[in-house]
Amino acid sequence: MRGLSVRSQGVLFAIGAFGAWGFFPLYFRQLAGVSPLEILLQRSLWSVPFLLLVVALGGGRLGALRAAFARRRDLLLLLLSAALLAGNWLLFIWAVQVGRVLECALGYYINPLLSVALGVLVLGERLTRLQFFAILLAILGVLVLAWRGETFPWIALTLASSFALYGLLRKTMTLGAAEGLLAETLLLLPFALAGTLWQQAAGEGSFLRQGLVNDLLLVSTGVVTATALVFFAAAARRLPLSAIGMFQYSSPTLQFLMAVFLFGEHFSTAYAVTFALIWSAVALFVLETWRRARRARPPVMALARS
């Protein structure tokens, strides 16, 4: 990537991160014979050595981890964020395995809008009129699905709210993306080890029992999920926030297309109305983000004079 501009590098990293997140349902469906809990445990185990390597090679601050663990407030926040992330992953993997990818896509469309709402309620941020209208459209979309849908969209709402809360917690921490994920994974490591040992002793784990391909896929869960986050961090350092905001909708779009056209999930009229409202909300939100980014950019003539 040395011959590429910083912005081009950022675009490639963003495509890698959000493309990976978008194709995760396809990956986890290859582990259909493995319980979601075992996948989560294996992911937590194998993320640790990979993230240690990434942080060490990337000049990360391992000393910052020790300092964070020594502060009671930071430790409690990390424990809570680790629990939210683990719960989010567990629900996502389960939903993929039971054929409810459409609800996952809906949840990750709602997530950025919910993050904005949390910013207003918790951090005192202000909404523009378009952003406020976008959130109202998203709420209306969820209400339509709750009223006319076959089931209440609890998967979508839980995924969206847990990841929005996770993002809010991470915003209050000083650790970088890779260091923060390593800290969370280290906190989950004792539970992952205990759970894996219990499964193996009880004969319930599939690791080392269902062939080399299954074992390689389980080991790779930690690498592929952590790599996506590392790519995201690299993209965020090279691209404006407005550009990152537009890229993030590619993941649920890929999930939506796979759910309908590859996995054959039922796309009812209620879902059609809900997604139309959510997509309208997303379009308004992206438009307003772009407009605000343009207003914040210094004029070209002013830059030329400085």
Task: Summarize the structure in words.
This protein is mainly alpha-helical. The chain has one domain. Helix content is 81%, strand content 0%. It has 13 helices and no strands. The chain has helices at 6-28, 36-57, 62-70, 72-97, 101-123, 129-148, 154-171, 177-201, 212-238, 241-247, 250-262, 269-296, 300-305. Helix 1 packs parallel to helix 11. The longest helix has 28 residues, at 269-296. It is globular and about 55 Å long. The chain starts with 5 loop residues before the first helix and ends with a helix. Residues 300-306 have low confidence and may be disordered.
Radius of gyration, CA atoms, in whole angstroms = 20 Å
Number of domains: 1
Overall pLDDT, averaged?
A: 84
Helix content, binned percent: over 70%
Secondary structure elements and pairings:
Blueprint: H1 6-28, H2 36-57, H3 62-70, H4 72-97, H5 101-123, H6 129-148, H7 154-171, H8 177-201, H9 212-238, H10 241-247, H11 250-262, H12 269-296, H13 300-305
Helix pairs in contact: 1-9, 1-11, 2-4, 2-8, 2-9, 4-7, 4-8, 5-6, 5-7, 5-11, 5-12, 6-12, 10-12
Key features of this structure:
13 helices, 81% helix, disordered C terminus, mainly alpha, 306 residues
Structure summary:
The protein has 306 residues and is mostly helical.
